[in-house]
UniProtKB/TrEMBL annotation:
The lineage of its organism: Bacteria, Bacillati, Actinomycetota, Actinomycetes, Micrococcales. Residues 71-275 form the Translation elongation factor EFTs/EF1B dimerisation domain. It comes from Phycicoccus sonneratiae. This is Elongation factor Ts. GO terms for molecular function: translation elongation factor activity. NCBIfam families: tsf. Associates with the EF-Tu.GDP complex and induces the exchange of GDP to GTP. It remains bound to the aminoacyl-tRNA.EF-Tu.GTP complex up to the GTP hydrolysis stage on the ribosome.
Length: 276
């Protein structure tokens, strides 16, 4: 029987995040040699990375940092909520966020290609985590904003999970609290664009066609169609456009009105929800 103790098993599990039986098998194969057992686990784990590439990552977390006129938001995904709420995955996400901030990465590809202080790329870091944790792990999205004021907001959809929704908002003028209130609004109401000019003309025209066809199907009078169509298109804008949405804290005012009263202008935002 290999010469190792329960303390050795515990130490190797903590170091590699491998399962109990995998650790025992590795120690048996290595005849109790901790360093050799760790190498065995790493090799076996790396062999499984390719097999996991096709798996679905629908869990994970969002992490953000903002201040000094800039903000970064990252979405790090895994396969199960069990891994998502683990300390090891959380520490990995923090490391990924730190690198995104340090390199000013604005997209996932740039972040994955960037080099950490130990010479590894972020992609290699994730592959190692993939091997040791035993799940597919990926950086799905990265956003970066710059502006006079940039704030972040993270929201938990469940108390036992890490943040599942993350928001960045940049503003000019006004105060930080107003920007933070808008960030909380974005988290709750999920606008897709800042202004209606950010929606391409083809999308608007399609909404107009659908609104007209629907009104005709409902038997609305021909003379009333232009007004009905315009009303429904405006309703579409209110759903999609941040500045035209009724403000969460004061629904009788639009977000634009609240910002204007605070002497602020929204210059950009980003919103990630895990898996969407």
């Amino acid at each position: 029987m290999a010469n190792y103790t329960a303390a050795d098993i515990k130490a190797l599990r903590e170091k590699t995040a491998a399962g109990m039986m995998d650790v025992k098998k590795a120690l048996d194969e290595a005849d109790g040699d901790m360093a050799k057992a760790e190498e065995i686990l790493r090799v076996k784990g790396q062999k499984g990375v390719t097999k996991r590439e096709g798996r679905t990552t629908s869990n994970g977390l969002v992490a953000a940092r903002a201040g000094a006129g800039e903000g970064t938001l990252v979405e790090v995904l895994c396969e199960t909520d069990f891994v998502a709420k683990g300390e090891r995955f959380g520490a990995l996400a923090d490391q990924v966020l730190e690198q995104a901030v340090a390199t000013k990465a604005a997209d996932a590809d740039a972040l994955l290609d960037s080099t950490l202080s130990d010479g590894k790329s972020v992609k290699e870091l994730l592959d190692e985590a993939n091997a040791t944790i035993g799940e597919k792990i990926e950086v799905k999205r990265v956003a970066r904003l710059e502006g006079e004021n940039v704030v972040s907001y993270l929201h938990k959809t469940s108390p036992d999970l890490p943040a599942q929704i993350g928001v960045l908002v940049s503003t000019a003028g006004g105060d930080e609290q107003t920007a933070r209130d808008v960030a909380m609004h974005v988290a709750a109401f999920s606008p897709s664009v800042l202004t209606r000019d950010d929606i391409d003309a083809e999308t608007v025209e399609n909404e107009r066609r659908v609104a007209e066809a629907t009104a005709k199907e409902e038997g609305k009078p021909e003379a009333a169609l232009p007004k009905i169509v315009e009303g429904r298109v405006n309703g579409f804008f209110k759903e999609q456009v941040l500045l035209e949405q009724p403000f969460a804290k004061e629904p009788k005012k639009t977000v634009a009105k609240v910002l204007d009263e605070a002497g602020a202008t929204a210059t950009g935002f980003a919103r990630f929800r895990v898996g969407s």
